[in-house]
Specification:
Blueprint lengths: L6 E6 L1 H19 L5 E6 L2 H17 L4 E5 L27 E9 L3 H12 L5 E9 L11 E5 L7 E5 L1 H4 L3 E5 L1
Parallel strand pairs: 2-3, 2-4, 4-5, 5-6
Antiparallel strand pairs: 1-8, 7-8
Helix pairs in contact: 1-2
């Protein structure tokens, strides 16, 4: 096992993740005065799982099921070039005049969020775009700040934060790797 993949600490367990997603859901409802006109765009892959959980919580609380799309930001990245041209985006609704909430698992430099904003704007002009992240680890390179954060986790640049989701990995937790 290389040094980069060693687990240093569990920063959120299943219960903490569930509470953070519930808190984000309530904050979204409060800021937007309900769920009407909201839609979610999750950044592949774990951002999609979190977006689906938030939408399910809003449905439970408000009786409105916001639409959820999947966004592949690969083609919009400015820091990574990929030759694979297959776009895995699935946004089967119009974003025009909607309040779009982009959801990511971890916000770090802000480059993924910027790429996601570009990808959403290419599909139409939303009323506004908001950003939700389960974990904010700091170290921004762009002037981007999430509107909703599950947990702020100060990290060094040498560490990485891994969100583990039941839907993909079989369990829920957030860990710091070094």
């Amino acid at each position: 096992m290389d040094k980069r993949s060693e687990q240093k600490a569990v920063i959120m367990d299943e219960n903490a993740m569930s509470r953070a997603i519930a808190r984000i859901s309530y904050e979204i409802l409060e800021r937007n005065k309900g769920a009407e006109g909201l839609c979610f765009v999750g950044i592949l892959s774990r951002g999609v799982c979190i977006a689906e959980r938030i939408a399910a919580k809003l449905s439970e609380l408000e009786g409105i099921s916001p639409e959820v799309g999947k966004l592949d930001i690969t083609a919009y990245r400015d820091d990574e070039k990929h030759s694979d041209s297959s776009d895995k985006t699935e946004i089967n609704f119009d974003v025009k005049d909607k309040r779009v909430i982009i959801v990511d698992d971890v916000i770090f430099t802000g480059r993924s969020a910027r790429a996601a904003i570009d990808a959403v704007m290419k599909r139409g002009r939303p009323r506004n775009i908001q950003l939700a992240a389960l974990v904010d680890r700091g170290h921004r390179e762009l002037p981007i700040r999430p509107d909703y954060v599950g947990k702020n986790v100060p990290t060094s640049r040498d560490e990485s934060v891994k969100v583990i989701m039941k839907e993909i990995d079989g369990s829920d937790k957030v860990v710091i790797l070094e």
